[in-house]
Amino acid sequence: MNTVDTIAAPASAVGGAVTVIRISGPESLQVLQKVWQGKNDPGKESNHRKMLLGKVNGDPALAVFMPGPKSYTGDDVAELHCHGGAAAAANAINAIFSAGARSAEPGEFTFRAFVNGKLDLTQAEAVSDLISAGSDAAFKLAERQLAGSLSEKLNSVYDSISSLISECEARLDFPDEDLDFDPRDAEKIAEIRQEIKTLLDSGRAGALLRDGIDVVLAGKPNAGKSSLFNLLAGSERAIVTPIPGTTRDTVESQIVLCDLPVKLTDTAGLRESSDPVEQLGVARSRRAIAAAKVIFWILDSSNPDLQSEIAEMEFAPGTIAVWNKIDLLLPGTELPQLPCPAVRISVAENSNIDALLKSFTDMIYGEGENARIPEVAVNARSQALLEESDVALLQAMEQFAPGEFELAASDLRNAMHTVGKITGKSSDPDILDEIFRNFCIGK
Ligand SMILES: Nc1nc2c(ncn2[C@@H]2O[C@H](COP(=O)(O)OP(=O)(O)OP(=O)(O)O)[C@@H](O)[C@H]2O)c(=O)[nH]1
Ligand SMILES: [Mg+2]
């Protein structure tokens, strides 16, 4: 992707009421002036950043010109707002291409913003996260990252390593002064490593927010899986009857649970069956259970033989036992103790669902005070680079002790360079390619 051409692409989903076309680059204004006709000149200074009414291809269209560097990309940017619909959008975009702009590649606008110093790489990644956010929490995390929350923490790590390098180099410049090992250096490295560890720890919650969580409802026939599925999904998606073996296939729904994006799956009740259709359904249930991150194992507490309810149960990590139908629980009945978190609910009476949700969030974030969505959360790319940087810091620490400052400085430079790759301070064309390839066109 070069940064000298003038590029253009629809910035809104085609098919909506309005199509927004974005143009960026040195010829933006000239391209706009060729395709758009109106009473007011968007190039006149008093008209900059103002929506002006005019026409494109004879159809009403709004135009705005935003000279760089105060624009999204940092280049001169023009935007056209035309009638929605694929045909109108295609006519307008073709006119723009004929006027000298070329089609933007996926993520090319944001790439230019990066090149022009408007965003660093973690902020560019946040742009992509904002678009794909599957829940409010994921959206807020992306918003904070776009505002620079993660950049700030990474820059602080980068600067701390950089000042350690300066200290190390100062000792190399004055070798006769004091070559003794200073324990404070090791302390400083340990502090930086702790900052890195906190960032690495945030990666788990970040992955859950970005990728979503697979939650499977499992249990014996008639336990109330489909009833709970419908309650959590907020619609009567799955069939519920008093007949055991009602659900034959897995049923999925994309929902938001406690602010987290969740793929909820209802399954066929687990039991031995001679019916080949049911056997296939049960095999699917077992596959879904094996692949799930969290399993709500539904148990019918009205079953007089409670041991038979738990006979099929597997206690894989992520399992929560959900004793359902407590409205039918006979007074004095003791529910068996289980080696996993357990809650008692009644779907029929919509009671104690809060306890189930609390158990779910405890499972995701861990219990206790700090159990919440982190302020910042690194993604897999940053995680890998932070781990690499931590290894270099550990090596530097080992070199400090015997006074090998030259070697320590070299390890520290590696660590700093690796942290720099996360924000883009240290350049790496492969990383740029990887990040911007995943963007949609127009961003
Ligand atoms: N009293 C009472 N009945 C419930 C409760 N939850 C579900 N039921 C009833 O139990 C029966 C079975 O519910 P389903 O949700 O179809 O059970 P399932 O686990 O999906 O069953 P299969 O699809 O056969 O595996 C239905 O008649 C529900 O109305 C509850 O909390 N209390
Ligand atoms: Mg069912």
Can you offer a commentary on this structure?
This protein has about 450 residues and is of the alpha/beta class. It has three domains: about 110 residues, Probable tRNA modification gtpase trme, domain 1 (Gyrase A, domain 2, 2-Layer Sandwich); about 140 residues, Up-down Bundle (Four Helix Bundle (Hemerythrin (Met), subunit A)), CATH 1.20.120; about 150 residues, 3-Layer(aba) Sandwich (Rossmann fold), CATH 3.40.50.300. It contains 14 helices and 13 strands. The strands form two sheets. The protein has a seven-stranded mixed sheet. A six-stranded mixed sheet has the order 9-10-8-11-12-13, sandwiched between helices. Strand 9 and strand 10 form a beta hairpin. The longest helix is centred in the middle third of the chain and has 29 residues. The structure holds guanosine-5'-triphosphate and magnesium ion.
What best-fitting shape do the alpha-carbon axes yield? Answer: flat
Strand content: 15-25%
CATH superfamily of the largest domain: P-loop containing nucleotide triphosphate hydrolases
Helix content: 40-55%
Strand count, sense and barrel status of the largest sheet are: 7 strands, mixed
Q: Structural class, from helix and strand content? A: alpha/beta
Low-confidence stretches: none
